[in-house]
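explain this chain.
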Amino acid sequence: MKLRIVIPDSFDEVTVDQHQRLTTAWENDSLTENEKLFEGVEILCGITMDVMVSIPEQDVRKIVTALKFLMDSPQSDDHPLQPSFTLEGVEYGFIPDWTNLLLREFVDLEALAKKGIYENLHLVMSIMYRPVTKRVKHLYAIEPYVADLMQAEKMKQAPMSVALGALSFFFHIGRTLAYATLNSSTNR
């Protein structure tokens, strides 16, 4: 029997849900290193353990090697902000004007960040990216924010590259603000 295995080769091909499950497996101290690797293959390639045990060990090692990019910490410059993306036929847009962030958006984002950004990434994504309601060239409007668990569940299928780009956006803003604060305090 010939088995076709699809191996993701970038964060574009890994969903937020897969990344969350992978992180949970890798942080599980009760699993051995091999069990963590096999769990990763199962999550990312959709191969059940029943099927995996019938694959030659060297082929499983090749798959694990191909997935090495996930084990390295993503660099913030590797994932630019994607202002919009399409998921299941719906265009989602990043909050276009952060200077007019609503208090409930800010409070929810802050609370989720305190609870753990990666564990709650699908919830964070549902705040930052919402369906586009109107578009004129590169400008767009998005739906008003409503805490919606159904929307958050949809965001589990978003590409991890989009999520990393959004997180990178905040990293760069935080770094810029830290430098600006440092410079303004030393100029006194």
Remarks:
- Residues 11-70 form one domain.
- The CA atoms of residues 174 and 180 lie 10 Å apart.
